[in-house]
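Dear Dr. H.,

I hope your travels went smoothly. While you were away I took the liberty of generating a structure for the chain from your last submission, since the lab meeting agenda had it listed for discussion. I wanted you to have the full record in hand beforehand rather than looking at slides cold. The sequence, exactly as received, is reproduced here:
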Amino acid sequence: MTAITNAASASDPAGRARTFFNCLKRDRLALAAAIFLVILAIATLAGPLLIGDMAAKLGLRQRNLPPFSLDHGWLYFLGADTLGRPILARLVVGAQNTLGIALAAVVTSMLVGGVLGLVAGYSERWYSQVIQRLADIIMSFPSLLLALIVLYTLGPSISNLIIVLALTRIPIYLRTTRAEVLELRERMFVSAAKSMGARPLRIVLRHIAPMALPTLLTIAAIDFATVILAESSLSFLGLGIQPPEFTWGAMVANGRGYLATAWWISFWPGLAILLTTLSLNLLSSWARTMADPQQRWRLQSLRKASR
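The corresponding predicted structure, in token form, is as follows:
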């Protein structure tokens, strides 16, 4: 009976969604991570409309205002920085910049690396070897060192930051896609498509790419947290986006000289970075277990334990 129910729910979109949320509720850490990320997404999208220009408004009377007080309004509940700007408002605006840069870098690296991986995996010509050697050259440099060199040469800006972050992540998607294509191109459906006269471009785009896409999306979810940390590190070193724009990493850098007297200036953006990356890792780990039929029994054991 359980197998029949699972099969019926697998063919029904509503049943699949119900199964998805039921499995998510069984893992409390993954559920907490999902709730945090949903709240963060809502605050990032709708928050700037509510706070207006408060993130950049100076208030010298509130300079280094301690947190957990509503005397100056709810925006100052997390305190204020050295120029009297509310940290809560700056966290919301900084989230837009941090997550926007990370999302653009991940999407760019996934698209470029995926396309190059499709070419390198399916084709056996000379340019396949060239693509692989270029990926090896990029991976031979430490990613942070490569980013420092490029940004120091080109200058810090949003576009340069996205390019350098995407450049350091391209080999991951390239190698993963190539490994998937090498396995998929030997399957029966590819041989059948060849025998019916399908061109290589059609085989790659119509048959192979859709099957490799779920793997790339899983890696992108995991890589998103890594890119956030890389962007925060570069912003902390002063090579991220420049004032008046700011990110969480820049907020941490602004408060590092006041850790003894005003710890909250660096603590809250640092905590936001920690919780965001931790939630992304927990949720991606849960999704990887959920997508693997051989590992899905772990979620079922959680259900039995909760009973």
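Two observations you may find useful: The chain has twelve helices and no strands. The first helix runs from residue 2 to 11.

With kind regards,
E. W.
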